[in-house]
Amino acid sequence: MAKGDHLGEFEHIVLVAVLRLGSGTYGAAIRREIEARTRRSLTVGALYRTLDRLEAKGYVRSWAGDPTPERGGRSKRHFEVRPLGVKTLRASREAIAAMWDGLEPEVTRGS
Amino acid sequence: MARELPLWLRALVRITSPTARDAEVGDIVEEYVEGGASPLWVCRQLLSVAGRRGARGDVRGHAAPLASQIAADVRYALRTFRRHPGFAAAAIAPIALGVGLNAGVFSILDAVALQPVPSPDGDELVSVYQDFRGVKERRIHGARQMFSVPEYRVYRDRTRTLSGLAAFTRYWTVTLGGDAPREIGGALVTCNYFEVVRIRPALGPGFTAANCEAPDAPPAVVVTHALWTSALGSDRDIVGKTIVLNGRRVGVAGVAPEGFGGIDVAQVSFFAPVSMQAVLRPEERFHLDPHTSWLTLVGRRQPGTTIAQVRAELGVIAGEIDRQWPGRTTTVLVEPARSLSIPVARRDVFRLAAVVAAAFGLILLVACANVANLLLARAAVRQKEIAVRLSLGAARGRLIRQLLTESLLIAAAGTIAGSFLARWSFQALLALLVSLAPGQIPVLRLDAGLNLHVFAFAIAMTVVASLVFGLAPALHASRLDIQTLLNRDSAGAGRAATGWLRGSLVGVQAAVCAILMIAAALLFRAAYVTETLDPGFAYRDVAVMSFDLRGAGVEPARAAAVRNALIDRVRALPGVELVAEAGRAPLTPGDTQTMVRRADDERWQEIDFNAVSSEFFGVVRIPITRGRTFRTTELEGPARAVILTENTAARLWPGEAPIGRTLQMAIDNNRSTTLEVVGVAADAQVARIADTRHLYMYLPAGRDSSAGRALLVRSAAEAAALARPIAAAARDLAPGLVVSVAPLERNLDLWRGISRAIAGLSGALSVLALVLATIGIYGVVSFVVSRRLREMGIRMTLGAGLGDVRRLIARQTLRPVAIGLAVGVAGAAAGSRVLGSVLFGVSPLDPWSFAGATILLLAIALAASLVPMRVLAALPPAAVLRRE
Predict the structure, then answer these.
(1) Which residue of A has its CA nearest to B24?
(2) Which of B337, B363, B393 is the last residue of a domain?
(3) Does A28 contact B13 at a Cβ distance shorter than 8 Å?
(4) Inter-chain contact B24–A44, Cβ cutoff 8 Å?
(5) CATH class in words for A8-105
(6) Domain end point (choices B718, B746, B774)
(7) What is the distance in angstroms between the CA of the first residue and the CA of the last residue of chain B?
(8) Is ipTM strictly over 0.85?
(9) Residues B203 and B295 in one domain
(10) Which end of chain A is more exposed for a tag (fewer CB within 10 A), N or C?
(11) Chain segment B700-725, per-residue pLDDT in tens
């Protein structure tokens, strides 16, 4: 895998979250999904920074939605995972799985 | 679940929005509105997205990168604070203290002198006063700048720039009759008063034309909600019933809405039409007199009219009034209406506030110097980091901005903590002010607290403070030379360069500390003087009886008889030795002054006086050293005889016998009366504490006045024990008469209280300054010692003794302290005169206070610098060398 294709841990998490929520999900939903599943709090700024990076690498694409009153007239930014993102995610997962192969029982026992 | 953003959060969102992206701010707002996030969470999130507009794609001008840099700086600074909580606390606490105390002072000033009065659209209201020249005849009930009824009517009828013009008097004390008579305060107002201030009575119609226009209108009052609940049993049918004021039945025309006690800072219990002047003060009739100053005017500007237009129009009307009185020129003073509007009182309050603010400002200065020192020390530690960043290409401006962001954040945190402190310090200061105010004071309306004015003031102070303590270290830290910094080891880094800055900061602290400590020392000396002084008259075993026959509705014609009967009854009480009459008891706050001149001298001189009966000198044991006391015949009719104090006699007729000589005393501007000196009394501090320099005379107490007057009772019995029989005697003679009986010593206590309170406050301030300055000096010395350990180790290895090394460091660190002290002493000498009025005889240049404070400060500075030097003695030279 070339260096540019590498996915960091947080990038991985964010990409999976967008994938789970399906096409057209938006920032707040992604953040809630990650917070609920990983039980860690994250800042809006950090999330969007990562989303920006994923978009630059061509893994996700985004588009602006319509303004809504509960957001003080601000629009949403919707996201969906592009085929390249799915491919990279799969590669990343396989790489990690390969590393874990055979090691899993030992770690689980220790916990 | 949906909820609104609170105002301050909305403001924060609005500030952040231009630098952030819509979608991201929208997510945050949505989480608050629908998800129930906490305001703190919103703040954190806003910080995380601030400055991201322009981070790819949507750049808007050049503002975005700057904003994003600032956001990054803030994030960086917050991280630093989290990593060094001790540093953050040490920096924030002094600022919080300084800003909090100053904002507290300001909140009081703001409430009395800057806020609009409590009235709908209160900023449309203006207060009107006048200044005149060439006026021969003027009687004053309140302040000279007030108006008479005829003058008021002219302005009211002619003005076009004001939609309404009302008039009101200052606080009048009257007796509310009933089962338990008591004194309450009221204001006389014109009938349109409630209309102009747009306050509608909660009950009843208020004043009608019938109450006001007719000269013999039935007396009526509007009572306040507070009086209605406390004294009238919240009777909903009160309107139309009567209450007793000064022995007269008065109809109730209405109840003011809850919380309204007039637009003046002194809150009243009732409002009466100005035509009731003669009902409440029957011995004087000035209701329609054109030459009596007793009314403050308050007007409402027509929509779209400026104050300048009002001023111009009223000025023209004043000119027309002047034409009736040749020689008179009037200047009309029009200002936005404030709770404290009388020009003289405003001037006094601003002066007092200036002195207090100066003292508190000095504390803030010491705090700033401490924080600056702390930042300098940190900058020295961070020199390597800064050097690395500079060498990697960081711009100096960028570094300065980052360091300033840190100090701004320290200041901001200090301001928030300080604002809470302000609330508390406001309460404490208010209690102090009330304890300083002489005599009984009316309830004051002070809704001081955290409002936008106070907050803006605190923020302004924050910005100034952070610039003061942040800019110098920031500029300095960024001016470093990269090459030398990266190369040299930490020993001695920045020694010469930071030395002068560090030194001058310590110098400033020492100077401020010296000023505050000298002030405190002077005030403590003054407090000691008032505690221990002998006022020159006997105040023990003397009770002061004060009463106001008008309050009981006693006719002026009968007043003398009632008073004499009361004196006889009191004289007959068991234990009473002697009873004397006096216009005012010794050391009663306030002045009674008039002008006198020698018969052969054109020069008029100001003189304090008291009107007393012949027993007065016996009751307070002031010996008559020459001549005699008053004869009974001299007590009747207008004053013909006078008794001077020794000092006054010596000043008027130096080296000559005063008995039998005559004085001219001014009655009004063009009449005077002749007084013959019949006696000379020993000097005593009867007018004010520790002051016998003013001229002073005793006049015979005439028997024809019905005005309030004190009786002095010398008795072996306690004042408290006398109160009951005296009250009983008073009730027999005049039902409804309120008599207060208090020991004369209380008047002395009042002065002691003032002195004690001021000394306490300044003592607390100077201790605070001392603690801050000690920390500052200690910090600097220990920093210098730790930085130069290696050099000292070398010196000691080469044979220098411990004493030599100590002296070297002490010389270097204490020089700025000594210079600061000298500046401080000079400053104190120049400024201590402002304390003159509360020093009670202690000279503003009292050498003991100056020397004591200076020596104490020097000793503490020495001790603070010796402690960090202990490390030198504890370590053998070899270890010192190894440590670096």
Answers:
(1) A44
(2) B337
(3) no
(4) yes
(5) mainly alpha
(6) B746
(7) 62
(8) yes
(9) yes
(10) C
(11) 886 555 445 788 999 887 777 888 88
